[in-house]
Amino acid sequence: MAEYRTHMKIIGDILTTTCDDSQDENGATVTYLIRKANVSHSRISRMLKVLVSQGLLEKVNEQGSNKYKISQSGREFLAAYNTFSNFATNFGLVI
Q: Would the pLDDT of 35 be above 70?
């Protein structure tokens, strides 16, 4: 049986994708995030709005298309998330 990702794991995947795999220095497109983070369009649209409003991502409008870049606070959140995730895994917990 397949194991479902938690909401936090999906946020971590989106932030990791924008941090590591950005298509260029201007950010990642929604289509790129859908493919790399493996999230549906309707779900990622809602999540991107929240992540931008919380200051974890920056929305860049380039030539009529929206791209997303990780912000400094997003990098800090991702570092803390990865630390906690590794800590939980070491104790056999799933977050």
A: yes
